[in-house]
């Protein structure tokens, strides 16, 4: 071996200068903290990235510790340096995606009495406007102008908005930090001005009593938990609002709503496997809430009514894993809460998962999923005759809008597929006439016939088959050369729909195959599919995703080094797990607001979502078995000395769902332990939370960054 005899200074002089990216690589300080639980000792070197004043930071981001801020900003600078060569590409992607959005778009107005209500945008506008127009024709009236309300704010998001029964006022809420602490206001629609009834720290939106003098809302405590329901009398001091219900168990979420008939206000108490409903007569807002059935672990139910004293209840009680619909007389149930008087209307059918139900004066409508596809079923109450609304495509997405009215034969639903832009239909439940009200416009043009959507099935390790939905151009070669973006989620029973997306076309038009892996943990194949991907079976979610990736490669749809995996939130946890388990199966990984510090988060019951999340993941505080299960897959805790594919993590400073320090700690540990130097980036949005930037165009800039990363690591930039 030849020896370099040059002096150190001479060698340094002739060595290539480090690039801007190399100079910007952050090195996180290590301040080890030891944790011992159930006799297991762990040392966390990056625990310090969790701000001790995180509750304050959610409301006032400027209070973040300077050392933590410095690290996050250094990581942002490293990202900018590393992705600098894609700046023009990002601008091109942004322009493409913006060009597919109809800037002055609007929804189909939804009728309610003398008015029809909707949402519209103006050209160049970032935020929606809430509008209404006279039902019999007339000028549109702007109730809330989102762009005007957002002026001067780095972040702004409209939440719930509900007009009073007499249409004179609007209860509306907004968030201006990204923390999801919403401020509720009451607007006088005659003057267009807000009253003095400003209520901070709500869950977003309010529900009106039938008289229109009271608004019910959920208050969030300091730990962002929806623990109290209040009744506010319009025009009064909010500090005198009446406490209607308080949930003492921090493991349960709470929400307030109204049945479609308007007869009852509903208090919904639930975690991820158990629910409980209380009713308040909408016409008697000061009445005490009445219980329908006491909570029972593992039993879920939701309540509608027919406006004539009969309750229609969707439930999994009685071993109905895929749910059934029962009826009961309201007076009997409320006098003696429980399930004794419940009688089957739509019996349980294994494999047919009933997702939701809505009652109208003469019909019940349910949304269900069977054989992996959604469908709408109309049930006539008078004679129990029912019929499905059918669709022809192999894979598609359905959405059902409840609307405002109860005494109607018309419902509204939306339909789309990976190749078909969204369509909005009105449907007459008696005549079965389907009326197209709107087709999503793609201003820059979209040729449906240029694309193919397919549903394939990947064999899993245990013999199950994992559905995978594909979208690609007809001229894309399926010989292993095409890059692929493989998306996954797989938690909470959430099914990822095969719906139309204008953004992913920017990848597909560049030769990508866009794929969705419908892994266990969702309900794509019924409730069983969810059960087999949670708690002690959570690893199935990860192995299903890996199986989908390997099947795509083995079928020559793509190849392993061209697969970019993408997931967000709990899907980001999936990204962290597969990065540890099978890094060789992917050419890149994109983890958005990733839930990767699972063990530490599930051990910290002060965090907003921890106690309600225990039914989903397990409770490592109380259970040694749950601790070991989570510790075995928690992405942050399982980073090892191995080569990792290129990786981009994205977080939000004020995110109350997946706190900013989860991706920050994960990236710090990856940078410390990995054995290669593939691109590794962390982007922390310092002015947003879980959903990223709030403006519709600002959000596209974030998507452009993510897609530029996918294109870069697959050699398509």
Description of the structure:
With 717 residues, the chain is α+β, with helices and mostly antiparallel strands. Among the domains are: 13-98 and 445-713, 3-Layer(aba) Sandwich (Rossmann fold); 153-258, TolB, C-terminal domain (Neuraminidase), CATH 2.120.10. It has an 8-stranded mixed sheet, with helices on both faces. Strands 7, 8, 9, 10 and 11 form a 5-stranded antiparallel sheet that branches. A 4-stranded antiparallel sheet has the order 3-4-5-6. A hairpin with a 5-residue loop joins β26 (373-380) and β27.
Key terms for this structure?
717 residues; alpha+beta; Rossmann fold; Neuraminidase; eight-stranded mixed sheet; five-stranded antiparallel sheet; globular; disordered N terminus
By CATH reckoning, the class of the domain at 13-98 and 445-713 would read Alpha Beta
Q: CATH homologous superfamily name of the domain at 13-98 and 445-713?
A: Alpha/Beta hydrolase fold, catalytic domain
What's the helical proportion of residues? 10-25%
Largest sheet: 8 strands, mixed
CATH architecture of the domain at 13-98 and 445-713: 3-Layer(aba) Sandwich
Multimeric state: single chain
Distance between the termini: 40 Å
Radius of gyration: 26 Å
**Beta-strand percentage range:** 25-35%
Give the CA-based shape. Answer: globular
Count the beta strands. 39
The residue-averaged pLDDT reads 94
Low-confidence stretches: 1-16
Strand order of the largest sheet: 32-33-35-34-36-37-38-39
CATH topology of the domain at 13-98 and 445-713: Rossmann fold
**SS content category:** alpha+beta
Helical run tally: 16
């Amino acid at each position: 071996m030849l020896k370099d005899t040059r002096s150190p200074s001479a060698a340094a002089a002739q060595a290539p200068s480090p690039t801007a990216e190399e100079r910007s690589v952050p090195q996180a300080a290590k301040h080890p903290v030891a944790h011992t639980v159930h006799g297991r000792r762990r040392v966390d070197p990056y625990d310090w990235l969790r701000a001790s004043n995180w509750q304050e930071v959610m409301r006032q981001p400027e209070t973040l510790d300077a050392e933590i801020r410095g690290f996050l900003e250094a990581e942002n600078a490293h990202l900018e340096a590393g992705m600098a060569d894609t700046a023009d590409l990002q601008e091109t992607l942004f322009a493409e995606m913006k060009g597919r959005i109809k800037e002055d778009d609007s929804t189909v107005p939804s009728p309610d009495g003398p008015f029809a209500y909707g949402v519209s945008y103006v050209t160049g506008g970032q935020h929606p406007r809430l509008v209404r127009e006279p039902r019999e024709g007339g000028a549109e009236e702007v109730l809330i102008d989102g762009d005007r309300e957002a002026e001067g704010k780095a972040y702004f998001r409209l939440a719930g908005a509900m007009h009073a029964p007499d249409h004179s006022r609007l209860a509306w809420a907004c968030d201006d930090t990204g923390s999801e602490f919403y401020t509720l206001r009451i607007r006088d629609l005659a003057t267009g001005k807000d009253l003095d009834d400003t209520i901070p720290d709500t869950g977003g939106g309010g529900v009106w009593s039938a008289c229109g003098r009271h608004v019910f809302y959920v208050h969030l405590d300091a730990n962002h938990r929806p623990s109290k329901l209040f009744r506010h009398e319009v025009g009064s001091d909010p500090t005198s609002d009446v406490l209607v219900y308080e949930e003492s168990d921090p493991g349960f979420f709470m929400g307030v709503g109204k049945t479609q008939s308007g007869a009852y206000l509903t208090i919904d108490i639930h975690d991820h496997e158990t629910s409980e409903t209380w009713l308040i007569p909408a016409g008697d807002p000061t009445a005490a809430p009445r219980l329908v059935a006491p909570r029972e672990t593992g039993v879920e139910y939701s309540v509608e009514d027919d406006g004539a004293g009969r309750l229609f209840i969707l439930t999994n009680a009685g071993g109905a894993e895929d749910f059934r619909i029962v009826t009961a007389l309201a007076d009997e149930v409320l006098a003696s809460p429980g399930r004794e008087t419940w009688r089957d209307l739509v019996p349980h059918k294994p494999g047919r998962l009933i997702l939701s139900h809505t009652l109208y004066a003469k019909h019940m409508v349910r949304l269900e999923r069977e054989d992996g596809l959604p469908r709408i079923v109309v049930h006539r109450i008078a004679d129990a005759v029912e019929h499905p609304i059918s669709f022809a495509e192999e894979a598609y997405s359905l959405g059902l809008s409840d609307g405002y009215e109860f005494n109607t034969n018309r419902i509204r639903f939306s339909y789309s597929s990976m190749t078909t832009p969204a369509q909005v239909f009105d449907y007459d439940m008696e005549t079965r006439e389907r009326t197209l009200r709107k087709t999503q416009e793609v201003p820059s043009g979209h040729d449906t016939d240029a694309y193919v959507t397919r549903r394939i099935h990947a064999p899993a390790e245990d013999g199950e088959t994992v559905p995978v939905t594909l979208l690609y151009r007809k001229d894309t070669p399926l010989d292993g050369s095409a890059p692929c973006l493989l998306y996954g989620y797989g938690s909470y029973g959430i099914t990822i729909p095969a719906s139309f997306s204008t953004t992913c076309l920017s990848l597909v038009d560049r030769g990508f195959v866009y794929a969705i892996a419908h892994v266990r943990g969702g309900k794509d194949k019924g409730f069983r599919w969810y059960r087999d991907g949670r708690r002690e079976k959570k690893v199935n979610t990860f192995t299903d995703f890996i199986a989908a990736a390997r099947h795509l490669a083995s079928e020559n749809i793509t190849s392993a080094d061209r697969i970019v995996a993408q997931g967000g939130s709990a899907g980001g946890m999936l990204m962290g797990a597969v990065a540890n388990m099978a890094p060789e199966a992917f050419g890149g990984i994109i983890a958005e607001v990733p839930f990767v510090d699972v063990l530490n988060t599930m051990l910290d019951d002060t965090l907003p979502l921890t106690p309600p999340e225990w039914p989903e993941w397990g409770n490592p505080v109380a259970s040694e078995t749950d601790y070991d299960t989570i510790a075995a897959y928690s992405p942050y805790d399982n980073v090892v000395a191995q080569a990792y594919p290129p990786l981009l993590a994205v977080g939000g400073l004020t995110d109350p769902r997946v706190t900013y320090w989860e991706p920050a700690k994960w990236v710090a540990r990856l940078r410390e332990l990995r054995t290669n130097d593939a691109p590794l980036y962390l982007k922390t949005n310092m002015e947003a939370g879980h959903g990223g930037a709030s403006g519709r165009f600002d959000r596209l800039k974030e998507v452009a960054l993510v897609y530029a990363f996918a294109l870069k690591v697959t050699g398509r930039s």
